[in-house]
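User: Please fill in residues for this 325-position structure.
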C-alpha cells in the first residue's frame, strides 16, 4: 500500500513539475517524455515489470544511417551513440558526407534512447580535413547551394542537439573539421595532431557562426588571434588554450574518456540539461535560423569572386604538390 501511495505521489509531483516547466520553454510533452523523465528520476523499478523491461537497454546496435560515409552505432546499454565519419582519405566534407551526418544527427534527435553522442573518424590520422575544397572550387550553382544549406543544417542539428555530444578527435582537424568538434560540448584529442580554424590561410573568411562556435570554447582574445592568423594548434597547445578539454593516448582511450564524460549526465535531469545547453547557445542558433538565406547569399557571392577562386586553386595546388613530394 505504502509503495503504491509513494508512487502516486511521486508521479503527481513529476507531472506537476513537468507542466510548470513546459509553458516557459514551449516543449511538447508526451507519454515518452514522461517515461524518460521517470526513468531518469529512477522510478522505473516501480513501473509494471514489462514496461520496466522494455526500458532496459540490451546490446550494441548498428543503426541504419543509409550511407557508408557515416557509420552509426548505438550502445543499447548506455544509450551512447557513436557517429563515425568514413570518407577516405581525409573525411573532407562534401555534400554527401554532410547529408549522412545530418541524417545521423536528426535520427538521434528522434531516438528517445539516445543519451549522448560521440563524433569520431575511421581514418587513422585525420578527424576531418574540413570542407571539401572541390565543392567550392569552380562550383556548380545548384550543388553549391545545397552543399552550403546542408552545412548550415548540420551545424544547427549538432550545435543545437538536445543530447550531449563529445568529439573524439583522433587526427588532424582543420577548418570545417574543427568546426564540427566545436559544435560538440566536449573535445578529447589524440596527441601530435593539429586543430584550428585556418580559413585566412586559404584566403577565405570563416563565417560568423564558425567564429561564434570558437568563441564558445576559448576566450575572445585567443579567438581573435587564432582566427585572424588562421593558426593551427598542436594537441598540447589546444589543451593549453582550452580549444580541447582532454588529451587521450589513442582512439580507444578517446572513446573511453568520451563515454566517461557522457556518463556523468546519467545523474542530471535531461530536460534541465538540454534547456541549459540550448539557452547558452540560443543567440547563435537563433541568428542562424533567422539568417540562413542571407548567409547562403554571402557564401555564394563570396566563392564566386575570382580572387577567392584563385586562392582556392593555389591552395589545392599546394596540397597536390605536397602529395607529389
Ligand atoms: C565575408 C565572408 C563571409 C563568409 C564567406 C563564406 C564562406 C567562405 C568560408 C568557407 C569555409 C571553409 C572552411 C573549410 O573547411 S575549407 C577547407 C580547409 N581545409 C584544410 O585546409 C585542410 C587541407 N588538408 C590538409 O591540411 C591535409 O590534407 C591534412 C592535414 C588534413 C591531412 O594530411 P595528409 O598528409 O594525411 O593528406 P594529404 O596528402 O594532404 O591529402 C590527401 C588527399 O586529400 C586531398 N585533400 C586534403 N584536404 C582536402 C580538402 N579540404 N578538400 C579537398 N581535398 C582535400 C589532398 O589534396 C589529397 O588529394 P590527392 O592529392 O590524393 O588527390
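Assistant: Residues filled in for all 325 positions:
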Amino acid at each position: 500500500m505504502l509503495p503504491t501511495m509513494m508512487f502516486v505521489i511521486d508521479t503527481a509531483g513529476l507531472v506537476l513539475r513537468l507542466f510548470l516547466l513546459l509553458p516557459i520553454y514551449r516543449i511538447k510533452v508526451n507519454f515518452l517524455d514522461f517515461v524518460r523523465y521517470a526513468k531518469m528520476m529512477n522510478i522505473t523499478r516501480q513501473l509494471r515489470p514489462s514496461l520496466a523491461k522494455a526500458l532496459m537497454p540490451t546490446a550494441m546496435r548498428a543503426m541504419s544511417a543509409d550511407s557508408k560515409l557515416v557509420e552509426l552505432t548505438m550502445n543499447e546499454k548506455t544509450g551512447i551513440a557513436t557517429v563515425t565519419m568514413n570518407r577516405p582519405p581525409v573525411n573532407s566534407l562534401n555534400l554527401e558526407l554532410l547529408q549522412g551526418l545530418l541524417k545521423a544527427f536528426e535520427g538521434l534527435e528522434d531516438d528517445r534512447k539516445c543519451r549522448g553522442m560521440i563524433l569520431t573518424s575511421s581514418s587513422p590520422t585525420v578527424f576531418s580535413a574540413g570542407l571539401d575544397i572541390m565543392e567550392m572550387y569552380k562550383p556548380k550553382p545548384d550543388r553549391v547551394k545545397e552543399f552550403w544549406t546542408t552545412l548550415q543544417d548540420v551545424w544547427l542539428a549538432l550545435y543545437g542537439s538536445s543530447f550531449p555530444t563529445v568529439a573524439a578527435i583522433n587526427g588532424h582537424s582543420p577548418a570545417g573539421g574543427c568546426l564540427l568538434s566545436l559544435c560538440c560540448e566536449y573535445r578529447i584529442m589524440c596527441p601530435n595532431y593539429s586543430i584550428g580554424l585556418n580559413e585566412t590561410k586559404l584566403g577565405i573568411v570563416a563565417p560568423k557562426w564558425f567564429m561564434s562556435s570558437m568563441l564558445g570554447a576559448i576566450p575572445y582574445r585567443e579567438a581573435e588571434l587564432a582566427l585572424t592568423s588562421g593558426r593551427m594548434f598542436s594537441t598540447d597547445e589546444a589543451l593549453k588554450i582550452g580549444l580541447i578539454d582532454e588529451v587521450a593516448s589513442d582512439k580507444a582511450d578517446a572513446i573511453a574518456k568520451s563515454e566517461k564524460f557522457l556518463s556523468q549526465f546519467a545523474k542530471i535531469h535531461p530536460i534541465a540539461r538540454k534547456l541549459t545547453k540550448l539557452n547558452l547557445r540560443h543567440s547563435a542558433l537563433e541568428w542562424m535560423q533567422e539568417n540562413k538565406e542571407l548567409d547562403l547569399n554571402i557564401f555564394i557571392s563570396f566563392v564566386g569572386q575570382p580572387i577567392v577562386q584563385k586562392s582556392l586553386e593555389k591552395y589545392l595546388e599546394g596540397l597536390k604538390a605536397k602529395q607529389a613530394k
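For context: Strands lie at 60-63, 70-75, 80-85, 116-121, 165-169, 173-174, 186-189, 194-196, 233-234, 246-247.
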